[in-house]
Amino acid sequence: MTIQKQKHLRKQVAPYEKSDTWHSVRQLVNTLVPFFILWFLAYQSLSISYILTLALSVVAAGFLVRVFIIFHDCCHHSFFKNRTANEVIGNITGVLTLFPYKQWQHNHSIHHATSGNLDKRGVGDIWTLTVEEYVSAPFRTRVAYRLYRNPLVMFGLGPIYEFLISNRFNRKGARWKERMNTYAINVAIVVLVAVLCLALGWKSFLLVQGPIFWISGSMGIWLFYVQHTFEDSYFEEDTEWEYVKAAVEGSSFYKLPKLLQWLTGNIGFHHVHHLSPRVPNYKLENAHNNTQPLQNVPTITLATSLQSLQFRLWDEQSKKFVGFKDIKVPSRAKSVLVQPKPKV
Questions:
Q1: Which one, of 199, 294, 290, lies nearest residue 255 by Cα?
Q2: What DSSP character marks residue 168?
């Protein structure tokens, strides 16, 4: 893709970068209201059947993912035209989703600026090693990487570590405003949990919020993982890396059924989002449908996305993701510098 074509592509998407206040408010209502109602119904169902509680929790978890998409848009200042409105709603939804607004905004901005850049991995992304790095890594690093990439760890324990533990601490070098924001979000979460536990009982709270948190967290990590981990993705050294190519070739179009597309806030149009983060989630589909080059990007479905579970390492020679079974590790390998485990 020539520089001229890249500029033309970004120009074609530019008209969709303006948010619509009425649409944003409507999305807040049709997301938060159902979520709170479902949460309350799940609590009420505890006296009937916990199976019913779990069923309601699954649906509520879907709406919590949609709450996160609103939080995500606010971090990009794309949900509202007004910056203050984005920050207010971003912090409120940050409390509901257990994400510190300023910290995640910083890390996610780096993710957008470096996605697919082999020399700038480690912030806001999935820990990814190249074949050469993995083969040459010490045994303990290879074991840690295999555990990290294990689906049971990534999607099972991942939400517990990332959202409950990692998000509670400030990153090294964080500025004062960011640090204070993390503390404020933590305090707000503690107060909200304490009030609900006192009002409903801590056991009832955990029986309802526990599955909602875990299911939505696993769904969120899966979406992030699958939209950057597909066979013909994009990774290049810094000297060869290009922002537009990283967006349209290194971010997939996750073609989901309409209901799941709605619940996930159109985040399946991830290539559009990476090309232009200022496009609000409710305009991503229109930007995709009305921009011809964007319709010729890597496309995955629910069925084909499961294949991503076998992709563990990036092969710089073939420019493809490969699995552990596709490589051989020498018994004695010379160690090289390995990319550190990132904050997702």
A1: 294
A2: G
Helix or strand holding residue 299 (H, E): strand 299-300
CA of 287: how far to CAs of 38, 254, 273, 295, 301, in Å?
A: 32, 15, 10, 10, 19
Residue 215 has pLDDT above 60, yes or no: yes
Predicted confidence (pLDDT) per residue in 113-151, tens digit: 999 999 999 898 999 999 999 999 999 999 999 999 999
Please, is 166 exposed, middle or buried when counting C-beta atoms within 10 Å of its C-beta (0-12, 13-18, 19+)? middle
Query: Could you tell me the sign of the dihedral formed by the alpha carbons of 262, 268, 271, 273, in that order?
Result: positive
Q: For residues 290 and 8, what is the distance between their CA atoms, to the nearest angstrom?
A: 14
- Predicted confidence (pLDDT) at residue 101 exceeds the cutoff of 80: yes
C-alpha dihedral sign at 159, 42, 200, 184: positive
Q: DSSP for 269-283, please give it.
A: BHHHHHH-TTS-GGG
**Torsion angle of C-alpha atoms 43, 48, 52, 53, degrees rounded to 10:** 20
CA–CA separation, 252 vs 225, rounded Å? Answer: 11
What pTM was estimated for this model as a whole? 0.93
User: Cα separation of 98 and 294, whole Å?
Assistant: 33
Pairing between β-strand 320-322 and β-strand 313-315 as defined by DSSP bridges: antiparallel
Look at the alpha carbons of 173, 175, 179, 182 in this order and tell me if their dihedral is positive or negative: negative
**CA 219 → CA 42, 58, 307, 340, distances in Å?**
19, 11, 16, 25
End-to-end CA distance of the chain: 29
Quick one: which H or E segment has residue 180? helix 176-200
pLDDT in tens, 273-285: 999 999 999 999 9
Beta bridge partners of 269: 253
